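A reminder from the course coordinator: this example appears on the midterm review sheet, so study it carefully.

Given structure:
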């Protein structure tokens, strides 16, 4: 992604959405604005950011695409596919199908690199039932997330915070914005169903920081 865009372009990007299930819109199209100084708590209010500093920050690793995602505390062990942009400029999402995997947005950095790596998955997959991120909102601070990479390396993250937020207030900059350390963002749908269309009204966003990385 380009480091700089015009205000008009950013406004257009912020207006676009992606869909994580039929009738379930999710994360807004990324922009390149600065990341806020804080992450978000379970309730959506600002929470203290994770400790920073060169001494405590793990060394980033070489670029390699993620092929598997493991979240032991909620029983996730899923393949990871690559997601780009759809024809309308919105972010692609994993297919609505049985055993639909998670998807890494390839406009973001790969896990273990400096910046925000973004992975999306469904909470439900229509007539196929539960999605791989069904229990994403149950994650707690300190829980472990591991991305396994194509070159055999792995990037392990710890959860900083979990946010459930209305789709109309999606934290675009907090998810896609520039950061100076390796972080991970996991996104799915959540909250109540829309009685009119059957989709979800909210998004669940997990914010995590790199703990260890390497072969």
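Designed residues:
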């Amino acid at each position: 992604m380009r480091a700089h865009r015009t205000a008009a372009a950013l406004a257009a990007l912020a207006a676009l959405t992606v869909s994580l299930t039929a009738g379930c819109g999710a994360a807004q199209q990324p922009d390149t604005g600065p990341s806020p100084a804080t992450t978000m708590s379970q309730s959506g209010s600002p929470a203290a950011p994770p400790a920073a500093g060169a001494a405590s920050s793990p060394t980033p690793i070489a670029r390699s695409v993620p092929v598997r995602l493991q979240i032991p505390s909620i029983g996730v062990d899923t393949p990871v596919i690559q997601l780009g942009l759809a024809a309308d400029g919105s972010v692609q999402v994993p297919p609505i199908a049985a055993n639909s995997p998670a998807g890494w947005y390839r406009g973001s950095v790969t896990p273990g690199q400096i910046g925000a790596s973004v992975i999306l998955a469904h909470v439900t997959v229509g007539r196929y039932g539960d999605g791989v991120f069904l229990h994403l909102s149950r994650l707690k601070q300190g829980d472990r997330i591991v991305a396994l990479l194509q070159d055999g390396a792995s990037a392990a993250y710890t959860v900083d915070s979990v946010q459930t937020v209305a789709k109309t207030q999606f934290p675009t900059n907090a998810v896609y914005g520039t950061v100076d350390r390796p972080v991970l963002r996991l996104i799915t749908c959540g909250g109540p169903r829309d009685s009119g269309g059957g989709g979800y009204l909210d998004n669940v966003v997990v914010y995590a920081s790199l703990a260890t990385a390497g072969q």
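Residues 7-214 form a domain with the Sortase; Chain: A; fold (CATH 2.40.260.10). The helical segments are 7-15, 172-176.
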